[in-house]
Write a structure and sequence with these properties.
CATH superfamily of the largest domain: [NiFe]-hydrogenase assembly chaperone, HybE
Distance between the termini: 59 Å
CATH architecture of the largest domain: 2-Layer Sandwich
Strand content: 15-25%
CATH class of the largest domain: Alpha Beta
Structural class: alpha+beta
CATH topology of the largest domain: Yope Regulator, Chain: A
Number of helices: 4
Radius of gyration: 24 Å
Largest sheet: 6 strands, antiparallel
Strand order of the largest sheet: 4-5-6-9-8-7
Bound molecules: fe (iii) ion
Helix content: 25-40%
């Protein structure tokens, strides 16, 4: 690769869709915001999405001769890469717990599997919902700068929709994390799809300030769901109503 030192080759996953490139022979830039009207390339086309036979509009050099001039999206690309790595470790850790300890426990719901849902960058760390056959938790993979408390220590974190109580914990692969219990056990969920739908609804409601009311939002989510389950409601269609319910629960 040394022959291409400084080019994007070999590091195509390191440049973002916003990267502005330039030809290292004639310095002609390629700016994705402008595209390339000499070749009918539309504005908004990332450099990596240019056709393989695209060449420099100035000197006809091939794509491989282009270097990064400026990459406004670089930081977020690196952040998303870190998020993917930490979320994968989280899933791997809980899959391992399932296989080692939970698989034969009666309370587990075998219709479900471990899945991280809706993770997004938040305050230097990553926040999302972890679905497992025996629980659904809001999980914060914290920024390195966030103080780490001992396992089982509580921390209340405020979101636009209210305050949520998290427990500190740590695992071998994940490292330190904070978890706020939403549901456990998971016996009422009939499918993975349904659990994932609820997880996505939770992430959406978390950041809606119009839902703010009182404290302990996780308890409200549980209470709302229990209210739905208590009286048999024959006309209720499971997934959409559950989604509405969580919105309604947080709103109420
Ligand atoms: Fe050129």
């Amino acid at each position: 690769m040394s022959g291409f030192e400084g080019s994007y080759l070999g590091a195509s996953d390191k440049i973002s869709a916003k990267a502005i490139m330039e030809c290292k022979i004639c310095w002609t830039p390629y700016d994705p915001a402008e595209g390339d009207d000499t070749r009918q390339v539309l504005p908004g086309t990332p450099f990596l999405d240019l056709p393989e036979d695209w060449t420099c509009p100035g000197c006809s050099a091939p794509k491989a001769q282009f270097l990064v001039r400026e990459d406004p999206g670089a930081e977020s690309a690196a952040v998303m890469e870190e998020m993917a790595r930490r979320v994968a470790a989280l899933e791997a850790d809980f899959r391992e717990i399932f296989n080692a300890k939970m698989r034969d426990v009666p309370m587990v719901n075998h219709a479900l599997h471990v899945a991280a849902v809706g993770f997004q960058p938040w305050e230097g760390g990553f926040l999302g919902v972890l679905v497992a056959p025996w629980f659904m938790n809001l999980v914060l993979l914290p920024a390195e700068t966030r103080p780490v408390l001992g396992a089982g220590e509580k921390e209340v974190i405020a979101f636009p929709s209210g305050e949520y109580e998290f427990l500190h914990n740590a695992r071998e692969m994940v490292g330190p994390y904070l978890a706020c219990s939403l549901f456990s056990p998971m016996g009422d969920f009939t499918s993975q799809l349904q659990a994932v739908d609820v997880a996505r609804a939770v992430m959406a409601e978390l950041f809606r300030s119009e839902n703010r009311a009182g404290t302990d939002r996780a308890a409200d989510i549980r209470a709302a769901r229990e209210a739905e389950l208590a009286p048999p409601a024959p006309e209720v269609e499971a997934t959409p109503s559950r989604r509405k319910l969580i919105s309604g629960g947080l709103a109420g």
